[in-house]
Queue: 4 jobs
Job 1
Amino acid sequence: MDQRPLRNTKSIQNANESAIYKLLVVGVVISIIGVFLRFAGDSMTLSIVSWAILFAGAFVCCKAVFKILGA
């Protein structure tokens, strides 16, 4: 195994911030709510709203991941 020490890069520092993980948890919770609503009822309006909530949660999760990567 390679025993070189890890460099303290900006992305590693960003990955250690707790605010990013809170944002990621919020995104996952929003996505779970969207998935639940998707199967909760059988109306067109509820289906459209649930898809919108699901995509909003996925967007929040992607935003958190890109913050970790420093992009």
Job 2
Amino acid sequence: MVKRLIIHGGAGKCGSSALQTWLPRAGLMRSDQIGVGRYAVLRRNGLVLGESLRKRAEDSLSGAKSSPIFSNLGTFGDSFPELLRRRLGQYYEDHDFLVISNESYFHTSEGAHLLLDCVPDDVRVEFVAWVRSPVDLVNSAWWQWGAWSSSSLSDYTGKFLDTQMRWGEFAEKYAGLVDSVDVVPLSGDIVGDFCDIYSIRQRAEQVERANASLPGEALRLYQRHPDLRPEPHRPRFDFILSRSLPGGKPPWVVPMDEVERIIDFMGEQRPLLEKHVRAPYMDRITSDRRWSDPEVFRSKAVEDWRPQEAADSELDDLCYQLVKALDQTYRERGL
């Protein structure tokens, strides 16, 4: 049986949290294609996996656990590479494959050597990333990160395209570093896709949506009370509210000129991108007009991306105080 390391990345807002929630629960995974393996998270002591990882995930607000970004591996000290090399060697004595995951890995291949240099020579390295229809992604990304930055929607879109959505180029860079690259257009069931691609025998148990979009009213509340979302990458209140509120759709804020800009940009990336999409999944792009036809979005009612006044200021303040009270309750529970 060939030994493999599976590195999972993503293009943002494409189900990574759902996969990172399911994988620790899956425990010891069995695959017709790649034997027996586990999901692991990289830490200073090498690897966290098994029951320890499952408990850490379940005890977290999000329910998910990912490995650190590549650049953080360089802060683990001079002895870390040798420690990780030794731990990986020991791991592959008893297992055929290992999975690690961080959504940022897709667009940070320049730091991948911090991991790849520690992988045993007889281990095949495979990279897999999920992507979603690009215009929908930008709207979601705005509410996940952009709205809590100091950027306008147009400026953020340009920066996001340039740094996060050069998917064809990202795939090509990984193709020069690892043994195989798979890019998978998201269908809505990333866990099912993962099990299908790697022939995982146990079928995916139902996983509650992790990091699901909040209702638009909650996002507008954030805008009026910036301390609820002080920075793009501090989503604590997202996880708190997602436990108490039903999921929703974020307000649609992408106007037609930006829609056309995004689709034109992705059209330039598609020839390289599609080199790395398996035939069974190509139909998810070619049959979905959202990838190539701006007119699909013409009927969308576009809201202003900027903060909006509350219709009822007293009710708005009450909602704010309730969110803060929920936060205090979770802190008292150690979360």
Job 3
Amino acid sequence: MDEPSLASLVTTVGGTAVAGFALTLQPEADELAGMAAQVLADPIMFRKLCDRVHELLQADLRYQRERAQGYGRIL
């Protein structure tokens, strides 16, 4: 069975067709696919990307913890 392409996934959201949505995203999807291929082919670039994603996730978790503590102080 063939896997659905990115374009076919973008044109439907929750089973409902989104008119014109894929046309605006298709060039970006192709560009992102090319960039992803470059990153996967270059181990140094891949490591830098992984490190940056890790930094962003840590910052997000820190922010969420700060917000959760702030809500606890009100009670």
Job 4
Amino acid sequence: MCGLYNLLDEAMSQELGVDVKTYIEVIDKKCTEEEATFIINTIMDEDAATIENAKALFHSKL
């Protein structure tokens, strides 16, 4: 199962334009649980209407 999570982390970091280490750091330590859930779910759903909001929220935590 660990391999699946690694692939998810890689895909998310690519979509957000950061390396995997940065993605994990921001999601785990700088976002609230609600913010992290919003970012991940929005990107996974590929909801074009809100994906830019998710990206902006993520990048505001850098």
